[in-house]
Structures are given as structure tokens and as C-alpha cells.
Fold:
Amino acid sequence: MKSPLAPLPPTAAYLHIPFCRRRCYYCDFAVSVVGDQQRGETSRAIAQYVEVLCQEIRATPNLGLPLQTVFFGGGTPSLLSVAQLQQILAVLEDHFGFAAAVEISMEMDPGTFARSHLQGYLAAGVNRVSLGVQAFQQELLAACGRTHTPEDIETAVALLRQEGVQNLSLDLIAGLPHQTMVDWQESLERAIALQPTHISVYDLTVEPVTAFGRWYQPGVAPLPTEEATAEMYRTAQRYLTAAGYTHYEISNYAKPGFQCRHNRVYWENQSYYGFGMGAASYTQLQRFTRPRKRAEYFEWVNQLQQAAGQIDCPPTTPEECWLDTLMLGLRLAEGLALTDLTAQFGQAKVDQLLQSLASFSQCGWVQFQEAPTGKRICLTDPEGFLFSNVVLTHLFNVSSG
Structure:
């Protein structure tokens, strides 16, 4: 296989803000619990973290292009004070520069911000909000350790609308303990009624290190069966596409013009900066994940400064690039262009891919589409998306075999 071309220098930056009031029972992210009363204005831990995060940004080499997208994830970024968010954005812009139409996304949880916070975030440059809704039933929110209520969701969306937020995404989770199809349909209907421009629909993943991992086995009551969660996926596809949302990625739906530009960077296997505890980056064909614990992350940033921003990790191999491109690109509705794959990885590799996917094409999970730029290969919606893990596992086994 020919060596793939290195992606262009990064134009995207992810910043991990790890602080939460409590840890949700399904969460295995790198987070620090600060309790119900603490936030950026009062928490010494948050203030210290922001300082170290800014040190990491300054110590990271600028690879030459201004940022087109910035994404604050967590954790709960809406626990930051306005001044802390302004500080981080100022350091980012000073060090890398912002494009004129930069997309600045911020994850927020209902009940964690007041109007004054929101006004400050928007004035600082935030122009896209992702609201962690998860469910609209109080018993389900409590069952997964969320601190907000359905009323908090309505209040948060009304506040966002009053302050002029147009680019609004809502997150929902299917497959929660005790969740029924009636619950799921109600959550979809209530989410649609709030008229966000983007909706993300995730299947619950039971990770071993979480509370859910200690309490439950996947597919065993009170968790819905695999058949039930598959039907929830199909139901979401029917409801959301009927409401005018384009199913542009396995877990994501958008109104025209409101796809998440930042997340498309990942799915298109482009390079990006990552900053903060547990954050991943992909620059100059090097993938690297930072330490997940705060003390270790602080020490790593100290070493980064001493090393003049150089990270010592091996570059991805051509085979890894190939598998990453397939795994990420097939998540998108438009899939992958065969001409692009051939140019980057060679005809032999593409021929092997087509042969490997023949059986999935016959069963209706994979399809070939004609486009102005040539033939594209993609998963079908919803069945191909639903069984994407089967398809991708097969491709990995073929490549490694």
C-alpha cells in the first residue's frame, strides 16, 4: 500500500473542561466532580486548571493555519466563569488566530448557567451550543445521575432563544435503564418541538469502569434489549427525518446548513489540536491522548513546556491511516469517494475493500452512489448505520488477516 499523504495543518481545536457537579452513572470521560455549589467563579481547582490549559496552548507549536472551529467539551464547560472562557479564547486566538467565520461550540448542561453567564459566553464568541438533554423523563434523568429536570431543559432552551442562539444542538440517549419505546418517542417529540437546528442521538454504552458497568449487563433488564434499542434507532431516524432533519452521520441529524463543522473534521480524518485532561489530538500524522488524571496532566504540561512543545510519539502507519479513514468516513451519510481512496491508498487496496464489502452490499447494508465527482461507497440508512460495527469489524479483520 502506498504511503498516505499527511493531512493539512489543523484548523480545529478541542478543549476539554473536565469539571462536573456529579459524575453521571454512564460516564467514563476524564472528569473531576466539584459538587453542586462550585463553579468557575468560586472553585480554586477550576481556576488552576484553566491556567495550566492556557500554558499547554501556548506551548503547542502553531502549524500555520488559523482555526476554523473550536469546541469546548467536557465535563461541563458551562461551569466556567465568563472571565475564564474569555481567557482561554484570547490565548487561543492570540496563538493560532481565528478565521473570520470561526465556529465556536460549547457544551452546556441545563441548570448550570444563568442569563449573565450565557450573555458573557456569547459576547466572548460562542456561536454554537450543544445542550446535554439526554431524556425528558424525570425518572430516567435520575436513573442515570443527571442533575437537571425536564423543566430545566425547557428553561435553558427558552433562555438560549431569548439571547439569540440559532445554532443549537440537543443530545439524547437511547437504551437507558427502564426506558420504554413510549419514553423514547416522547423524548423525540419534545426535542423536535423545541426546534433545535441539530440533534444528536446516542446509544447508551455500558462501560465497565462506570456505575452502570457495575450494576447492569448490556441487554439485560432493566436495560432495554438489543432488539428494543435497534428499534429506538430506527424510530429516531423516522421521526427526525420526517421533521426535516438530515441524517448526515450515524448519530447526528441537522437542519440544512447546521451540520457540526468541528465534528466533521474528525469524520473526514483531518488533523486537529486537542487540549486538556484526556484530550486527543491528531497532528502531523501523530495521534496522542493526554493523561486523564489532573496531577498527571499538570506534570505532562510542565514537561511539554520544557520540551518546547514537542510530543514524542510514533506516527500512524499507512495501515492505521487506511483503517481510520474507513472507520470515520463510513460514519457519514455520503461515505467515501472511491477516487479519493484510490489516490491516497492505491487501487489494490480499494479493490480489496470492494471485494470485502460485496456481501454487505447484497444484504442492503452498503451501497454505491453516483456523484458528480465519481462513485462513492456508503452505509445505508438506517440498516447499514445500525449494523456499522459488524461491517467495520469485518474490514478490520480482513486488513489484519
